[in-house]
Design goal:
This protein has helices spanning about 5-25, 75-85, 110-145, 150-185; strands at about 40-45, 50, 55-60, 65-70, 95, 100. With about 190 residues, the chain is of the alpha+beta class. Strands 3-4-6-5 form a four-stranded antiparallel β-sheet, covered by helices on one side. It has a two-stranded antiparallel sheet with strand order 1-2. The N and C termini lie far apart (about 50 Å).
């Protein structure tokens, strides 16, 4: 086992975890319209569940309105149904060619719920980063036991993995705080 390879793999896994958190934060609703809000919506398109972005063009012409323009007008009812049944609490309407989705202002109670969701996502990803650290540390200890690395190399590598972990957790906490502020801003 090469130490540099272990460090780069650990860094790549932590970076991927941070990106996953960033993607999940984008799906959390703030007070204004964002096309990312509808990324998780799946539409029944001729019998198969298809992401909304693959069957329609989504845009945000105003800060409090999203529009969905399907490429095939026959799926407009399915799009409307998918948005209604999602957990986004949105009420779409269609004019036969386009689905309009007004984005209502968030209530204080709903904002607090969303902040709890942000905290949950942050904690889930913190745990994932710590698990990546644990796996890297286990590999280092196994390499020491197999005598493929020295005790000094193991100690230095453990310190580097810890510094990497602390860095990624700090970045994750910053992302969480930023998203929390966006949610709480009226």
């Amino acid at each position: 086992m090469e130490l540099n390879q272990l460090k780069s793999d650990t860094d790549a896994h932590m970076k991927a975890t941070l990106e996953d958190a960033r993607r999940k934060f984008q799906h959390i609703r703030t007070g204004r319209a964002s096309v990312n809000l509808l990324d998780t919506i799946m539409v029944d398109y001729y019998g198969s569940m298809t992401p909304l972005s693959q069957v329609a063009a989504i845009s945000a012409p105003e800060p409090s309105l999203l529009t969905v323009q399907p490429w095939d007008p026959s799926v407009i009812k399915a799009i409307e149904k998918a948005i209604l049944t999602s957990d986004l609490n949105l009420n779409p309407s269609n004019d036969g060619k386009m689905v309009r989705i007004p984005i209502p202002q968030l209530t204080e109670e709903r904002r607090k719920q969303l902040v709890r969701v942000v905290h949950d996502i942050t904690e889930e990803h913190r745990t994932a980063i710590r698990n990546i650290r644990r796996d890297a540390n286990d590999k280092l200890k196994a390499a020491l036991k197999d005598k493929t690395i020295s005790e000094d190399d193991e100690r230095r590598a453990l310190e580097e993995v810890q510094k990497m972990t602390d860095s990624y957790i700090a970045k994750l906490n910053d992302l969480g705080k930023q998203r929390e502020n966006e949610v709480m801003t009226v």
